[in-house]
Amino acid sequence: MNVLFDTNVVLDVLQNRQPHAQAATQLFARVERKQIKGYVCATTITTIFYLASKAIGADTAKKQIKLILELFDVAQVDKSVLLAAIQADFGDFEDAVLYKAAQYANIDCIVTRNIKDFKQSKLPVYLPVELDAILALR
Predict the structure, then answer these.
(1) CA 78, 80, 82 angle in degrees (round to 5)?
(2) Nearest residue to 15 via CA among 49, 44, 40, 52
(3) CA distance 111 to 106
(4) For the domain that residue 53 is a member of, what is the CATH number?
(5) How many domains are there within the chain?
(6) What does R_g of the chain's alpha carbons equal in angstroms?
(7) Distance separating alpha carbons of residues 8 and 24, to the nearest angstrom
(8) What gap in Å lies between CA 138 and CA 122, rounded to an integer?
(9) Rounded distance, CA 49 to CA 92, Å?
(10) Are 101 and 75 in contact (CB under 8 A)?
(11) Per DSSP, which regions of 1-138 are E strands?
(12) Is 42 within 8 Å of 36 (Cβ atoms)?
């Protein structure tokens, strides 16, 4: 299963944001064990670097990014993704970009803590705890 991780789920793990970190960490472990194939959007990488460099410094932020890139594949963002996101019926452009990047990368589902932001999604969208429970049944 190809799963695109929304930025908020990645940040839950990196910043140990409770109570959300536990389920997100479980999903990271599933990626590491190759039970699922994890993806992040290219824009997630730039957002995380920006936020992390402010909080922990650029050198440490680069180390975090390197670890993420070792674990996850990247759903590309190019002109066609951006144009499709502009045309998408999403209230938030960043979410539209993430969604369209997922579609173009043949992702099976998106995992996020903001399901309401993906009401227009034709892909399944799960909370981390929901996806972890589904995967536990397999």
Answers:
(1) 70
(2) 52
(3) 15
(4) 3.40.50.1010
(5) 1
(6) 14
(7) 10
(8) 23
(9) 21
(10) yes
(11) 2-5, 37-41, 73-75, 109-111, 125-126
(12) no
Q: Give 82-91 contacts, CB < 8 A, sequence gap 24+.
A: 88/120, 89/120, 90/117, 90/118, 90/120, 91/117
Question: Is residue 38 helix, strand or coil?
Answer: strand
Q: How confident is the model at residue 16 (pLDDT cuts 50, 70, 90)?
A: confident
pLDDT in tens, 68-107: 999 999 999 999 999 999 999 899 999 999 999 999 999 9
What is the residue range of 64's domain?
2-136
Contact criterion met (CB below 8 Å) for 115 and 127: yes
The partner residues of 74 in beta bridges, in order of sequence, read 40
Burial class (CB in 10 A: 0-12, 13-18, 19+), 128: buried
